[in-house]
Amino acid sequence: MPTKRDWFGLIASSILYYLTARAGMTLFSFQPANITLIWLPSGIGLVMVLTWGLKAVPFVVLPDFLANFPGLLEGRPWSSAVFHTSISTIADTLAPLLATQLMGRFMKEGVQDAKDLIWFLLYGCAIPVGLSSTLLSLNLLTGHYIESAAVFDFIKMLFFADCLGILLVYQIYIGWPDAKSLVWRPYQTLVGVGILLAFLLMAGVSTKQWWTYYLILPALVIAAFEINLFYIATLSSLSMLAMILTTAHGLGPFIADDPQEANAEMMAYVISAVLTIFGLSLQNSQLHRTENDKRKAEQEAQHDPMTEILNRRAFMPLLQQSYEHAQAHGSTYSVAILDIDDFKSINDRYGHAAGDMVIKHMASTIQKYCPEQGYAARIGGEEFAILLPNTHAIEAYQRMEQIRIDFMDTLTPCEDGQLVAATVSIGIACYQGQSGANQVLGDADAALYRAKGSGRNQVLCSP
Ligand SMILES: Nc1nc2c(ncn2[C@@H]2O[C@H](COP(=O)(O)OP(=O)(O)OP(=O)(O)O)[C@@H](O)[C@H]2O)c(=O)[nH]1
């Protein structure tokens, strides 16, 4: 059963399908031959079927029929118009259904990077649209809407208009998951590029100096390195729509004596521009994904997954660095080791999950009192360490006392509602010319051992 959200999406898409179909027939038709230069419903239909599967079919059929019927009724009996509109609606619905099947079979992951584009052009565009354009044109021929001599031109025209519609809409669709997550550069870049593109388009229209249109592609190419797929696809689609609109009104750089020639020139330019931007943007997305994955893997390798603070592996080199720095500059630093008291009995009494909550509570208390230039790490099961650069034993002792008292005074709330009380023992060592980083750590450990031995819940300094 479709959810409320699905119903909303289906109805909104269906309305958009109808409106873009009507716009294709009026705004984007090349006069006087009434050639539709772009058919956005082909892309909307594909996205609808990809998103909602067969549930989308009635929501494609209805707006398609309603949009096509008036044109096919003109001067004809109703029965004939209904018949031929039905056939054209079947052809229009068949294309996204077939595309979805082919893509599901041959490119399960969809379009991930630029090399998938060729397969998308084949399975998502060429095969299904080739079939539907042929069916639509034969339907118009048998209904005597067009002459037999015009069939091939019609197939060609429908093919390009539908493919372009799919390309423009599909690139925005696959960029959608990135829409919120990342604009690689600030919004200013996006706004700046938008203004530049609008300026180039308007400069062309107002001065009739159409060379400005040829600057749109390089502007988009440069922007594709800065802006993510969703926004660049939207900018590219809007610019191309503006270009098509200009051509449809007999303006722009693609005007020739023969409307077919002008149409072909514009189509060739727009399709190659869209493909260039789409491919480039996909490649950039892939690059950014790889970089993000690498950064995430590095982050994970250095952090404890439970407490999200540094792990032992990341902490030990920091200790060595501090030691070398103190030796070279005659400065000092302190190291503290913290161990939750009688943790085994907490686990035994409240359960392992409650024990985990106590560990997390310890980590958050440590972070609360760890100075900005300090480092906190979980170095064992219930054992933590803190490195305090440029800190003498007295200051370190005061900080550790704050941690000990806060942890003792704050009960840990567990998932089952229990409140668990726990304490911590802490050993501190300050660098005073020891013979190695491990020696300082060993001194802190020895102080911790003494704290455990003399009753727990206390902070002791070495020696
Ligand atoms: N819940 C939980 N327990 C852990 C984790 N890692 C280690 N432990 C437990 O921590 C306990 C540590 O016990 P001990 O080393 O005997 O120390 P203790 O009971 O804290 O006693 P003292 O250190 O002497 O105060 C063991 O029972 C471990 O199973 C963890 O990630 N989660």
Automatic annotation (TrEMBL):
Catalysed conversion reaction: 2 GTP = 3',3'-c-di-GMP + 2 diphosphate
GO-annotated molecular function: diguanylate cyclase activity
SMART domains in the cross-refs: GGDEF
Record-annotated GGDEF domain positions: 331-463
Its membrane topology: Multi-pass membrane protein
Keyword DNA damage among UniProt keywords: no
Membrane-crossing segments per the record: 6-25, 37-61, 120-142, 154-175, 187-205, 211-231, 238-256, 268-287
Domain of life: Bacteria
Location (main, coarse): membrane
Short name of one Pfam family: GGDEF
Protein name per the record: diguanylate cyclase
EC code: 2.7.7.65
Localization annotation: Cell membrane
Alphabetized UniProt keyword annotations: Cell membrane, Membrane, Nucleotidyltransferase, Transferase, Transmembrane, Transmembrane helix
